[in-house]
Write the structure tokens for this entry.
Amino acid sequence: MGSNGNVYQDVIESGGDYGVKSANVEGRSCLRLCGSAGARHGMTSNSAVHELLECPVCLSIMHPPIHQCPNGHTICVVCKSKVQNSCPICRQELGNIRCLALEKVAESIELPCKYHYLGCQDIFPYHSRIRHEENCKYRGYNCPYAGTECFVTGDIPFLVAHLKAEHNVDMHDGSTFNHRYVKPNPHEIENATWMLTIFNCYGYQFCLHFEAFHLGMAPVYMAFLRFMGDENDASKFSYSLEVGANGRKLKWQGVPRSIRDSHKTVRDSLDGLIITRNIALFFSGGDRRELKLKVAGRIWREQT
């Protein structure tokens, strides 16, 4: 996937099984009156308490401090500023009245993870829940597209469909690939980034990135692979990338990084195949005025 007039051609050698893993999306709401210190698995429901603690604006369980209007309607502290201090139900001024009784109820119960609709079945004491949600394995992923800033989040099947429909990213099946990156004037490239392809293999998806930036004063290109999933699954795979011509070859072998790490994080860590502009032009042949760089690669599952 190119930008600023960039063109690439690809020849794919595919093989291996593929598919899409999706999380269980059947979640159930629950609250439990309890004083446990750790997470529990499984869910019960108490719709009356749930409705009592649900903010009328964001429809989420309210976090203390909980504010109320003179008529007793409650709202969470986050949404209080959004409604400009006016009760969304009766339009009375909210002021700074706190509902201490409801705050004590909120602090005495266990709550489901807010990602229960994506498959998380654990429930937590009020304050532990917030810490868990920051690292919950079921939380959504940020869109991994690197060509433009995109704020879309979701599970992997949703993001795969989003990348195809909204970013026109190519999809290929198989664990081996060849890309030919072509740029008429390589000296125009300044901090450019592309997501070339998403690969389906071994039942997972992998994103191939190609970036141009300066490493110190030297202009370089970098190719790397990211895994569409969490780091623990990414670590089960390895990949290799290579470029070459004229009997020479430059090769990289590494472990794909999870899309939990942004493409900028991976680039700044230099965790990929780095090619200086001079070497890239040497591999391109000819008069060195046009970049014609073939990037070949392979993905495989490590034996456990």
About this structure: Confidence is low (pLDDT under 50) at residues 1-37, 41-45.
